[in-house]
Amino acid sequence: MSNADMQAIWDRHLITGWVRDLPIFVVAIHFAKDTKPELVRVVDGWREVVDDPVALSAYLVSLNLRRCLDKNADGTLRFSGKGPTRAFIHSRCKRLSSCLWSDKFTAEQIVQNLHRFKWIRLGPAAAKETAKNRRVDQKFDNRDRIFVNAKRRDKRTDWQTTK
Fold it and tell me: Mind listing the pLDDT tens digit for each residue in 117-141?
């Protein structure tokens, strides 16, 4: 299979995982079952398991797929298979997450136009940017605010008056 075919399969599984609210590692298992079945073993006739999760991560890194990998501190790529698919997508592409939550488009339409969404790879640079944004938000949120309690001219709704 070519890399474009692999990317299309991954994208389809990623959006299906969002729709079905699956963990991202389960999405990776479904992808491996379609592309390299020897990594996945079926137990009890329906449950798919991976005996070696490191081999699955190494397989995904070797494919160098977009919308799949993050960066380590030394710049190498890694697969982060933790958490739900919805959190995985939201942390890397907020516009795609908003589009999926809006329910205005079908999953097939989103898969066809997935290349239009900007996807970031999480890593040290993204963490520094997030920390910088938090510091800026804290700086502007912690300003001293002055509240002026102006005296009302009308006392008709004042409890002391109506009593």
Answer: 988 888 776 677 777 777 766 666 6
Beta bridge partners of 23: 84
Return the pLDDT at 45: 75
What is the 8-class DSSP label of residue 36?
-
Short-list 6, 117, 25, 31, CA closest to 80: 25
Indicate the SS3 state at residue 131.
helix
- The structure tokens listed for 40 are 């996945």
**Which one-letter DSSP state was computed for residue 50?**
E
Pairing of strands 40-43, 77-78: unpaired
The number of angstroms, rounded, from the C-alpha of 85 to the middle of its chain's C-alpha atoms is 6
> Which residues touch 84 (CB under 8 Å, ≥6 apart)?
21, 22, 23, 24
pLDDT tens by residue, 20-63:
999 999 999 999 999 999 999 888 877 888 888 999 999 999 99
- DSSP state string for 65-129: -TTT-EE-TTS-EE----SBHHHHHHHH-HHHHHHHHHT-S-HHHHHHTGGGS-----SHHHHHH
Structure-token pair, residue 133: 């944004």
